Automatic annotation (TrEMBL):
<feature type="disulfide bond" description="Redox-active">
    <location>
        <begin position="44"/>
        <end position="49"/>
    </location>
</feature>
<dbReference type="InterPro" id="IPR036188">
    <property type="entry name" value="FAD/NAD-bd_sf"/>
</dbReference>
<dbReference type="InterPro" id="IPR050151">
    <property type="entry name" value="Class-I_Pyr_Nuc-Dis_Oxidored"/>
</dbReference>
<dbReference type="GO" id="GO:0004148">
    <property type="term" value="F:dihydrolipoyl dehydrogenase (NADH) activity"/>
</dbReference>
<keyword id="KW-1015">Disulfide bond</keyword>
<feature type="binding site">
    <location>
        <position position="205"/>
    </location>
    <ligand>
        <name>NAD(+)</name>
    </ligand>
</feature>
<feature type="domain" description="FAD/NAD(P)-binding">
    <location>
        <begin position="7"/>
        <end position="328"/>
    </location>
</feature>
<feature type="domain" description="Pyridine nucleotide-disulphide oxidoreductase dimerisation">
    <location>
        <begin position="348"/>
        <end position="457"/>
    </location>
</feature>
<feature type="binding site">
    <location>
        <position position="53"/>
    </location>
    <ligand>
        <name>FAD</name>
    </ligand>
</feature>
<keyword id="KW-0560">Oxidoreductase</keyword>
<dbReference type="InterPro" id="IPR023753">
    <property type="entry name" value="FAD/NAD-binding_dom"/>
</dbReference>
<feature type="binding site">
    <location>
        <begin position="145"/>
        <end position="147"/>
    </location>
    <ligand>
        <name>FAD</name>
    </ligand>
</feature>
<dbReference type="InterPro" id="IPR001100">
    <property type="entry name" value="Pyr_nuc-diS_OxRdtase"/>
</dbReference>
<dbReference type="GO" id="GO:0050660">
    <property type="term" value="F:flavin adenine dinucleotide binding"/>
</dbReference>
<dbReference type="InterPro" id="IPR012999">
    <property type="entry name" value="Pyr_OxRdtase_I_AS"/>
</dbReference>
<dbReference type="GO" id="GO:0005737">
    <property type="term" value="C:cytoplasm"/>
</dbReference>
<keyword id="KW-0963">Cytoplasm</keyword>
């Protein structure tokens, strides 16, 4: 155990905690990280973002290989090797975890494996795997303990028939029939993976559309694409009971019309959200306030005490790895006496890596209208894009929501090829408060997918050329 007093003790080494720790050290703060796992990177690296996207990449390659003949590439006997896919996933995860360890050494960030608990102002107890305990003293404590997979009161994961995303990442066999409960990003990504792996997938969602946080036009397009791929989507459907047995999993539900419906599968994936890891971290020994399972913080992530900060999935902000990272940077900049800009949560990009991909930022069209804006919309389909035709990726569109009065871009919503990469241009546009006209006068290279953004910007003023 490292000895001495510290400037910052960070509890949790996920994308919020480890990024914050590195920035703290760069700012000259003596920094220690406490992490319960024997590796760095947290849920995102080991049980979330990275391994999921590795399997999605395998699914993308499998799909391309099956379609290869239409591009002049004959691929015979194309099949999935799930064991090799898992091996690739583990290789990527291991490389990134070792990379974080290297960054810690480079920046002189120390870390210890154990469970951290706050005892009082600036005091953290670390319990190690062997049961031993030691107390650390620190000027500041940053809570970055993240979240875990959530259950429903009447449906809980057992790791066999009813699984969560952690279990899904380690399945040794592809289930013939997979039920997915929840049509948010996690549910839709796993549906996209296993459908292309060979499962017959059924998605069940309580709300009235898939990807309910996205613009309604995006939800409609993704659901249409899923149905074309043979993925059944049942929205506005409430699951009331679940039974497991040798037959697999059986669900009883009611649809929007109040009719009883039944679903059967070999496995049920619960994708119903996550729960903040706040039990056992010692919040009862602080002045921190918790409402609806979230720690309440100010604009600099102080939890009602000058020495205590909290970020990421612990607080009521978007539960996204890149958000946690930025919050961590801002928090330690504030600890170091800097004056960092606060985060504009209307400018947080959201990405869903299903097929087709979704990338969005800013206000949806309904949100903009609800806020009182007079809205103009520009839209351009990838079916009219030369580069999309080359790729054989004609699904989707770019939609730009702009303020009619000042022409400021309020939101950009992309569904289609490489949407999660294309959204970067929109991030810069919103950050720079660009107008649709300024974006339209920006020359975009040809042939590229991002020409669709240019055309959508022209469409805000009814001047789209290629449709």
């Amino acid at each position: 155990m490292p000895e001495g007093s510290w400037d910052v003790v960070v509890i949790g080494a996920g994308p919020g905690g480890y990024v914050a720790a590195i920035r703290a050290a760069q700012l000259g703060l003596k920094t220690l990280v406490v992490e319960k796992d024997p590796f760095l990177g947290g849920t995102c690296l080991h049980r979330g973002c990275i391994p999921t996207k590795a399997l999605l990449h395998t699914a993308d390659l499998l799909q391309k290989a099956r379609e290869g003949e239409s591009f002049g590439v004959r691929c015979q006997n194309v099949e999935l090797d799930l064991g090799a896919a898992h091996a690739h996933k583990r290789k990527v995860v291991s490389k990134n975890a070792k990379g974080i360890e290297g960054l810690f050494k480079k920046n002189r960030v120390q870390w210890v494996q154990g469970t951290g608990k706050i005892l009082g102002p600036g005091r953290v107890e670390v319990q190690k795997g062997d049961g031993s305990r030691e107390t650390l003293e620190s000027r500041f404590v940053l809570l970055a303990t993240g979240s875990r997979c959530g259950d429903l009161p009447h449906v809980k994961a057992d790791g066999e028939r009813i699984i969560n995303s952690d279990h899904a990442l380690e399945l040794a066999e592809v289930p013939a029939r997979l039920l997915v409960l929840g049509a948010g990003a996690v549910g839709m990504e796993f549906a996209s993976i296993f459908s292309r792996f060979g499962s017959k997938v059924t998605v069940i969602e309580l709300l009235d559309r898939v990807l309910p946080l996205e613009d309604p036009d995006v939800s409609k397009e993704v659901e249409r694409a899923f149905r074309k791929q043979g993925i059944a989507c049942h929205t506005a459907t409430r699951v009331e009971a679940v039974e497991t047995g040798e037959f697999g999993v059986r669900l009883w539900a009611k649809n929007a019309a109040g009719e009883e419906v039944q679903f059967e599968g070999d496995k049920l994936l619960l994708a119903v959200g996550r729960q903040a890891v706040i039990d056992g971290v010692g919040l009862e020994n602080t002045q921190a306030k918790v409402e609806k399972g979230r720690v309440q913080v100010d604009a600099y992530y102080r939890a009602d005490a000058p020495w205590l900060y909290a970020i990421g999935d612990l607080i009521p902000t978007p539960w996204l790895a890149h958000v946690a990272s930025m919050e961590g940077v801002l928090a330690v900049e504030h600890m170091a006496g800097k004056n960092p800009p606060t985060i504009n949560y209307n400018q947080v990009p959201s990405c869903t890596y299903c097929y087709p991909e979704v990338g969005s930022i800013g206000l949806t069209e309904p949100q903009a209208r609800e806020k009182g804006y007079e809205v103009r919309v520009g839209r351009f389909p990838f079916s009219a894009s030369g580069k999309a035709a080359i790729l054989g990726e004609s699904l989707g569109f770019v939609k730009i929501v702009a303020d009619a009065r000042y022409d400021e871009i309020l939101g950009v919503h992309i569904v289609g090829p490489h949407a999660t990469e294309l959204i970067a241009e929109a991030e810069a546009a919103l950050r720079g408060e660009l107008t649709a006209e300024e974006l339209a006068w920006t020359i975009h290279a040809h042939p590229t997918l991002h020409e669709a953004i240019h055309e959508a910007a022209e469409g805000v003023h009814g001047m789209t050329i290629h449709i």
